[in-house]
Design a protein that fits this description.
Chain C: InterPro entries: 2Fe-2S-bd_N, BFD-like_2Fe2S-bd_dom_sf, FAD/NAD-bd_sf, GcvT/YgfZ/DmdA, GcvT/YgfZ_C, GcvT_C, GCVT_N, Sarcosine_oxidase_asu. Chain C: Pfam families: FAD_oxidored (PF12831), Fer2_4 (PF13510), GCV_T (PF01571), GCV_T_C (PF08669), SO_alpha_A3 (PF17806). Chain C: Belongs to the GcvT family. Chain C: Residues 57-79 are annotated as: Disordered. Chain C: This is Sarcosine oxidase subunit alpha. The complex is a heterotrimer of chains A (100), B (184) and C (998). Chain A is mainly beta and 100 residues long. Chain A has one domain: 2-Layer Sandwich (Folate-binding fold). In chain A, 9% of the residues lie in helices and 33% in strands. Chain A is built from one helix and six strands. Chain B has two domains: 20-25 and 105-183, Gyrase A, domain 2, CATH 3.30.1360.120; 28-101, Alpha-Beta Plaits (2-Layer Sandwich). In chain B, 22% of the residues lie in helices and 34% in strands. Chain B is built from four helices and ten strands; from the N terminus they run ββαβββαββαβββα. In chain B, strands 1-7-10-9-8 form a five-stranded antiparallel sheet. Chain B starts with 19 loop residues before the first strand and ends with a helix. Chain C is an alpha+beta fold and 998 residues long. Among the domains of chain C are: 1-156, Ubiquitin-like (UB roll) (Roll), CATH 3.10.20.440; 163-290 and 421-493, FAD/NAD(P)-binding domain (3-Layer(bba) Sandwich), CATH 3.50.50; 305-415, FAD/NAD(P)-binding domain (3-Layer(bba) Sandwich), CATH 3.50.50; 503-574, BFD-like [2Fe-2S]-binding domain (Arc Repressor Mutant, subunit A), CATH 1.10.10.1100; 901-992, Beta Barrel (Elongation Factor Tu (Ef-tu), domain 3). Helix content of chain C is 22%, strand content 27%. Chain C is built from 25 helices and 52 strands. In chain C, a hairpin with a 6-residue loop joins strand 21 and strand 22. The chains are: A mainly beta (100), B alpha+beta (184), C alpha+beta (998). Chains B and C meet through strand 6 and helix 4 of B and strand 8, strand 40 and helix 22 of C.
């Protein structure tokens, strides 16, 4: 069971308090009606499946209720960092991973 | 006036030598959501809303716990609910917020006794000892969302939605019996 | 019966005899005995039969690694457990033990004929033998395999025991309470650190329990141990015995299984049998020690052949001499001490046979002094004895040549092939192993967990080394946690250290192809099987493992994996690190389902949510059905009624007079804020801006893919306040989805969502008399057609209770939903029930609700939709606010597939023969087409309709809305049913029944 740092509560807590919410930084266009079929297909269905760091969304469902973003290494399962929704993508090269 | 009568009909709650579980009397409960400048709401409530998640404040029969960046749970006497709602409603136009009466949504279990913290570990995965006395957290007890108030080193309150309460209380009751047998 | 107990030896309490039975025969052991030690004390070595060949077997070890001595244990009705390791199970007065894998008896077993067929049952036997003829599979092979398969017998009765679980957080978790673990605990037990020390054995001490000759800090080992344990407790260290670390999971979460009652004669009240602990430790110290390796030689599995270290444990810890005339066979120094200890306990050691040509001078000297025959540079080539070993055949080996045999008569063979660090938990962390050529074994290397290994677990031998390493690791961990520890290891005298060499199967002068040299005792895998697997093309250790089943038994290869690897590497001609070790997986030792399920059985098997009306419904004899986590009243049968009769009566009551329905489980969300209407416009398909305060509307929620996700009636209580309802099962999902869009897509909106599902309990009244019943009870609203028309809502008082009143109908009759705070719901229900008697008020359940709504063509999301249905497919284009610039799903609805012709549409079906269709039945256009037919849809809802006078159905049919009046066919196993496509509204299409007559 993973430990996840909630950037809103500023606590590192057991995974059971959280739910996964899909890939992060998938932006819903401000005006969806202007999207082409291909763009909308990309928004709805096309996701990355990297071996290594993956941008993800999680929700602290049983805590503060906030959705937030995370970078998780899909090889080790480790969270490299978590950050508030709306914050820019962190630079992957700066992430060492938290050992706790 | 209609009294808030609990619909919760759990089996007799547990009273062991080292941990006890009992049902708290009905209480008024309001969920407050707001952001930005809270000064007007603070004035209306007569306290300063804590802005760190998990922290509490209290004043004149009103107790508040910060649950999220823009969310607070208020506990107050049932007959104060109307007055607080009215005071806040007057601010709605100038300070948009949401105040919802959830007095009937949930019940509060009181958990105390020397091994109360240990009793909670049968359902809480997070470290109970890491919650300072006088604070509170929304967390999960056996996958049920609960609000845990830590009133003392061995005194807690657990807010649980009505329909989850029998499940949570049943587990706590089992745990109480185990702890009693362990200590005997 | 002969006693093999050695007076004055061991930690068992001979003054407290304990009676138990084995295969019905009564035996006596002493307090502190395991089943194995007690039986050995009675001279019994034969304890079971092997899995494949049914060969007689006795214990080979004295611990949890035991592969052979698996027994069934019973404690009265319901309390039977198969495959209990006799070497771990403690005895108590009255314990019933039975042997396994034998028929009719342990001493004579008919399936032992498999053993004679050894040449047939080689590696891959199942894969090869049962291939042909194909027709034999069902009738011959499968029944044979099924009868023969399985280890032990499954219990058949319900388990009367209870199981528990707890979470535990600590700074340091130490696994293994031997010298390394004890020293680590002492060093880590500094002020402010929470230290937990666990051990799977009944008492802490590890190897010290088997080595009483050691002196620590000048005191006998056992005295030091007792003081040290007391000191650790005094320092606040939590010491847990009979507690196995079963798995090491992410980020230092370790699962523990604590056995609380299996060793007790009387079961204490309120005490679970086992408790699963989920421990989260900041640092973990693995001090699990090492496991002795068997030697692989022909006949190494006879009862009486056991590990030398086990013999030492039986002698020194349990006071049992496993043989009067043992012979020691070894490739490691440690077994020499076993010989010395046994000789000192009155045994006559027949010989020490060492595969090495030379050994340490002090060992030779002591053997000579004790008068023990020594044979260096020898191999073992056979054993004799059917139910107990009688002799060992040994041959000298010189220059690779096996010389002439000598047979040594004996009653036990004590073997040692050296020691393997216990790598299992480390392996669970995906830790990397490093090959150590000197010790011919893998040692733990890198792990990403905050974990250190101490003592024999990383290849350090001897008590002194273990204590020093444990103390050093304890200090290291304390430092990592920001604490200074000055703890130093105590000094040890009488320590026994040593070295050895690693052997593959021992050389032989006999036909190696006939040798039964076992590597995996439990799965009956021999060295020959491993070599055959390699010859047949299994070049990966993972393939060798699966082909031979080596290491796949319940002991997880604790004894067999390293020997198997060495032999496979030899056969492959590659060094061991290139061959690699198979992965160890949790649990470390077999774990009961009880422990894993713990509290989640019986009443707590699954969480069941009940409404405040549930108890009333139960008292009325309602039948219930699960809907999401809720249990809802399904129908209310009267005496003599079946479901059909009850539903028919309930439907008729609603259509003719008045029905009352508990809708409390409907999800409810309070949407508040100046941007509430903007939010609603964006979430739901419908337009909300013009919905007046005091009015409500049916809302449809889509995903951004354009498919229906949920629906419900939504009331506008104020300009900035909506009361949203969702389906019962969708409540949490819808709130999550709304929060998602609000928090991450539209954070600028000033609107907040609060779940009020359980704040409000909802009582629905439906029927021509609904308004008549309700009107006198309502204050603040006049229930007339003009003042409170259909789709109105209001905050008012009902029966003196604060209420939110909705005039809505899910039945086609005049309908109201009265929401009151949950604690008052029963008060409201009672009042309505009483006052409703004059209208023959009838309680109805979800089944009647389903029939009544289907008669009106109202959909149930999740039943008539399946995640691929759009509002247009469902015939609800009217609910889509086409002029809105955006809402969730708007762009999705324009996707090419969603605007394509011939999508499946929701339609009504009426069967031509008046039969009721089955829900889920597939639909075809042409019943005469060849199989497989082209299926064009399926039946989603089907009921007998009293109001229509025949069965009705809803179905999704390709292009259905353009096929009104056409016939489709529903092929069933016995016949094909023809049905006509109709509209979805079967009753009162003009909605005349909704009107309240003045």
């Amino acid at each position: 069971m993973l430990l996840i740092h909630c950037p809103y509560c500023d606590e590192t807590l057991p995974e059971v308090e959280f739910t996964y919410a899909g890939q992060a930084h998938v932006v819903r266009a401000a005006d969806p009606s202007s999207q082409t079929d291909a763009e909308w297909e990309n928004f709805l269905f096309i996701r990355s499946n990297p071996k290594g760091p993956h941008y993800e969304r999680w929700r602290h469902l049983h805590g503060c209720g906030r959705f937030f973003n995370a970078v998780r290494d899909t090889v080790s399962d480790r969270f490299l960092t978590t950050y508030k929704a709306g914050a820019p993508r962190p630079d992957l090269s700066s992430l060492q991973g938290d050992r706790t | 006036m209609n009294k808030l009568v609990s619909s919760f009909t759990a089996a007799p709650l547990a009273r062991g030598a080292v941990a006890r579980v009992s049902l708290a009397p009905p209480v008024g409960r309001l969920v407050l959501r707001a952001r930005g400048d809270l000064a007007a709401l603070n004035a209306a409530l007569g306290l300063t809303l804590p802005t760190t998640i998990g922290q509490r404040a209290a004043a004149a029969g009103l107790e508040v716990l910060c649950l999220g960046p823009d969310e607070w749970m208020l506990h107050l006497s049932p007959d104060q609910v109307g007055a607080v709602q009215a005071a806040c409603a007057a601010l709605m136009a100038s300070h948009p917020h949401s105040l919802v009466d959830v007095s009937g949504r949930e019940v509060t279990l009181v958990i105390d006794g020397p091994r109360a913290a240990e009793l909670l570990t049968i359902g809480c995965a997070r470290d109970i000892e890491a919650i300072p006395v006088g604070q509170g957290r929304r967390t999960a007890f056996d996958n049920v969302t609960v609000i845990l108030w830590r009133d003392g080193s061995a005194a807690f309150r657990l807010d649980v939605w009505n329909s989850f309460a029998p499940h949570v209380a049943g587990l706590l009751e089992t745990g109480c019996r185990e702890l009693a047998a362990e200590t005997a | 019966m002969r006693s093999c107990r050695v007076p004055g030896r061991g930690r068992v309490d001979a003054s407290r005899p304990v009676g138990f039975t084995f295969d019905g025969r009564r035996y006596q052991g002493a307090a502190g005995d395991t089943v194995a030690s007690a039986l050995l004390a009675n001279g019994v070595h034969l304890m079971g039969r092997s899995f494949k060949y049914h060969r007689p077997r006795g214990p080979v070890s004295a611990g949890s690694e035991e592969p052979n001595a698996l027994v069934g244990t019973r404690r009265g009705p319901g309390r039977f457990e198969p495959n209990t390791r006799a070497t771990v199970q403690e005895i108590w007065e009255g314990l019933e033990v039975t042997s396994q894998n034998r028929f009719p008896s342990l001493r004579f077993d008919v399936s032992a004929v498999n053993d004679a067929g050894y040449m047939l049952f080689s590696a891959g036997f199942y894969y090869k033998t049962f291939m042909w003829p194909r027709g034999f599979w069902d009738k011959v092979y499968e029944p044979f395999i099924r009868r023969a398969a399985g280890l032990g017998v499954s219990p058949t009765e319900e388990d009367p025991d209870t199981y528990a679980s707890r979470n535990l957080h600590c700074d340091v978790l130490i696994v293994g309470a031997g010298p390394a673990g004890l020293a680590a605990a002492r060093a880590a037990a500094v002020e402010g650190l929470r230290v937990v020390l666990v051990d799977e054995n009944a008492e802490a001490g590890g190897t010290l329990l088997s080595e009483p000759q050691v002196r620590i800090d000048g005191r006998p080992a056992w005295d030091w141990l007792a003081d040290e344990l007391a000191a650790l407790k005094g320092l606040g260290v939590r010491i847990m015995t009979r507690t196995t670390a079963i798995g090491y999971y992410h980020q230092n979460m370790v699962g523990l299984c604590e056995k609380l009652t299996d060793h007790l004669a009387q079961l204490p009240a309120d005490t679970p049998r086992e408790r699963l602990w989920r421990v989260r430790a900041r640092w973990v110290v693995l001090a699990q020690g090492a496991i002795e390796k068997p030697l692989v030689f022909n006949g190494n599995d006879r009862p009486g052949v056991m590990l030398a270290g086990a013999a030492q444990t039986y002698l020194n810890r349990y006071g049992v001499r496993v043989g009067d005339r043992p012979v020691v066979l070894t490739s490691h120094d440690s077994a020499w001490y076993a010989a010395f200890d046994l000789q000192g306990a009155g045994a006559r050691v027949q010989a020490i046979v060492d595969t090495r040509p030379s050994v340490r001078e002090d060992l030779l000297h002591e053997a000579r002094a004790l008068g023990i025959l020594v044979k260096l540079g020898h191999t073992a080539t056979a054993t004799s004895g059917r139910l107990r070993v009688k002799s060992l055949r040994v041959n000298p080996v010189q220059g690779g040549q096996v010389g002439s045999p000598v047979t040594i008569a004996c009653d036990a063979v004590l073997m040692s092939g050296g020691w393997t660090p216990s790598l299992h938990l480390f392996s669970h962390t995906q830790g990397k192993l490093a090959w150590d050529e000197a010790q011919t074994t893998f040692l733990p290397a890198e792990t990403r967990e905050d974990c250190v290994i101490a003592g024999a677990g990383r290849g350090l031998w001897g008590v002194q080394a273990a204590l020093e390493d444990g103390a050093a690791r304890g200090r290291e961990v304390a430092a990592a946690l920001g604490k200074d520890s000055a703890a130093q290891a105590p000094r040890v005298q009488g320590d026994r250290t040593g070295t050895g060499v690693t052997q593959i199967e021992l050389p032989t002068d006999l036909n190696a192809g006939r040798a039964k040299a076992f590597v995996d005792y439990q799965n009956d895998v021999t060295a020959k099987d491993l070599r055959l697997a390699v010859r047949e093309g299994m070049h990966s250790i993972e393939h060798v493992k699966r082909y031979t089943t080596n290491g796949m038994a319940t002991d997880q290869g604790k004894l067999s994996n390293i020997n198997g690897l060495n032999i496979a590497a030899d056969a492959l001609g590659r060094p061991q690190p290139q061959v690699g070790l198979t992965t160890f997986r949790p649990p470390y030792t077999p774990t009961t389902f009880g422990a894993l399920a713990n509290y989640h059985r019986g009443d707590h098997f699954e969480l069941t949510r009940k409404t405040p009306i549930d108890a009333w419904a139960e008292a009325q004899g309602a039948a219930f059905e699960p809907v999401g986590q809720w249990r809802r009243a399904w129908y209310f049968p009267r005496p003599g009624e079946d479901m059909e009769a009850a539903v028919r009566r309930e439907c008729a009551a609603v259509r003719s007079s008045l029905g009352i329905f508990d809708a409390s489980s409907l999800g409810k969300i309070e949407v508040i804020g100046p941007d509430a209407v903007t939010f609603m416009e964006r979430m739901y398909t419908n337009p909300w801006a013009k919905l007046g305060v005091g009015r409500c509307r049916y809302g449809l929620l889509l995903g951004d893919d354009g498919f229906i996700r949920d629906d419900g009636v939504i009331g506008r209580l104020a300009a900035d306040r909506f009361h949203v309802t969702t389906t019962t099962g969708g409540a949490a999902r819808v709130l999550n989805m709304m929060e998602d869009y609000l928090q991450t897509e539209w954070p600028e909106l000033n609107v907040w969502l609060t779940s009020t599902t359980e704040q409000w309990s909802t009582v629905a009244l439906n029927g021509p008399n609904a308004a008549k019943l309700l009107a006198p009870l309502v204050e603040g609203v006049e229930l007339t057609e003009d003042a409170f028309p259909h789709m109105s809502c209001a905050e008012c008082t009902v029966a003196g209770l604060p209420a939110r009143l909705f005039r809505v109908s899910f039945t086609g009759e005049i309908g109201f939903e009265v929401n009151v705070p949950s604690p008052m719901a029963m008060q409201l229900w009672d009042r309505l029930w009483q006052d409703g008697q004059r209208y023959g008020i009838t309680a109805y359940g979800t089944e009647t609700m389903h029939v009544l709504r289907a008669e009106k063509g109202y959909i149930i999301v999740g039943q008539d939709t399946d995640g691929t249905v759009t509002p247009y497919d469902a015939g609800m284009g009217w609910a889509v606010g086409k002029s809105k610039p955006d809402f969730v799903g708007k762009r999705g609805l324009a996707r090419p597939d969603l605007v394509a012709k011939n999508r499946r549409h929701l339609v009504g079906l009426l069967t031509e023969d008046g039969s009721r269709l089955e829900e889920g039945a597939q639909i075809v256009f042409d019943p005469k087409q060849p199989v497989p037919m082209t299926m064009v849809g399926h039946v989603t809802s089907s009921y007998h309709s009293q109001a229509v006078g025949r069965p009705i159905a809803l179905a999704l049919v390709e292009g259905g809305q353009d096929r009104m009046g056409q016939t489709v066919h529903i092929p069933m196993p016995d016949r094909t049913i023809a049905a006509t496509i109709t509209g979805t509204v079967f009753v009162d299409p003009e909605n005349t029944r909704l009107k309240i007559e003045a």
